[in-house]
Specification:
Blueprint: E1 5-9, H1 14-28, H2 38-50, E2 56-60, E3 65-75, E4 81-82, H3 86-95, E5 104-111, H4 121-135, E6 140-145, H5 158-161, H6 174-181, E7 185-198, H7 200-207, E8 215-217, E9 226-229, E10 234-246, E11 253-254
Parallel strand pairs: 4-11, 5-6
Antiparallel strand pairs: 1-2, 2-3, 3-5, 6-10, 7-10, 8-9, 9-10
Length: 255
């Protein structure tokens, strides 16, 4: 059977860009509160537009349907320290107007709709990002990975979760395992990768419930509990991710 899937850049046409937006909304809509990190709100759309030629879309030419998406940003990284601010830091670095010439590709998200999962598209997009990194002449590919099953264990520390193994002795988390299988190295946990601080009413709207007391509360898709402070009228969600790195840059460490 001939290969019908082809990579198209977001910059190819307005139709491709619009389809990419729809796919991203479909995949991440239930986690829409993540759109309210300061970095996402201020800079994410800028990155998608400024680096549209680096945003990769996997399209089935037989049907015209987009089945996967890989978003990324080039940054300048000295290879020395990856910060605890993870995804937010990566977006801010990518949006800098005064940044040095980039030498690193930072992966922001790989998105596959539920109906197209299990076909290897996510793994292919990891490979496409590695190819893009090499083609652009970057020395590094880094990613603040959002483990795919951590939401089922929100009270477990990410540092502990990363060390879990399945019955075959492999990394327990399927998405982390996919990165390791493709040659990534775990660098460490970025504890404050995506930070959302909003009034309690904002979180009540997302959670579909009232918060009558202060304290930790689990929310849909959350990797850690939401912290509610009624006295300050604030809900704070600090999502940890896991830094991984592909390539030969030596000496990376976590702040």
């Amino acid at each position: 059977m001939p290969e019908t899937f082809r990579i198209r850049p977001r910059s190819e046409s307005a139709a491709v860009a619009e389809a990419a937006c729809r796919l991203e909304d479909e995949v991440w809509g239930h986690l829409g509160y993540l759109n309210f990190t300061d970095a996402h709100h201020r800079h994410y759309d800028t990155i998608l537009t400024r680096f549209a030629d680096l945003q990769l879309c996997l399209v089935d030419d037989a049907t015209g349907e987009m089945v996967a998406l890989a978003n990324c940003t080039p940054i300048a990284w000295d290879g020395a320290a990856l910060p605890s601010r993870g995804w937010d830091w990566l977006v801010e670095e990518g949006a800098r107007d005064d940044a040095p010439a980039p030498n690193t590709l930072g992966a922001l998200a790989i998105s596959v709709p539920p109906r197209h999962r299990g076909a290897g598209h996510a793994q292919r997009m990891i490979g496409e990002l590695k190819t893009l990194c090499e083609r652009q002449g970057f020395s590094s590919l880094i990613a603040p990975v959002r483990p795919s099953r951590k939401f089922g264990h929100p009270s477990v520390r990410m540092q502990d979760y990363v060390g879990w193994q399945d019955r075959e002795g492999r990394c327990f988390d399927p998405w982390l395992r996919s990165h390791l299988h493709q040659g990534a190295r775990l660098v460490g946990v970025c504890d404050r990768s995506m930070v959302v601080e909003q009034p309690v009413a904002f979180w009540e709207a997302w959670a579909g419930r009232r918060f009558e007391t202060s304290g930790p509360f689990e929310i849909e898709g959350g990797l850690v509990p939401l912290q509610i402070d009624l006295d300050r009228d604030v809900g704070l969600y600090e999502e940890p991710n896991v830094w991984v790195r592909y390539d030969g840059v030596a000496g990376a460490r976590l702040n």
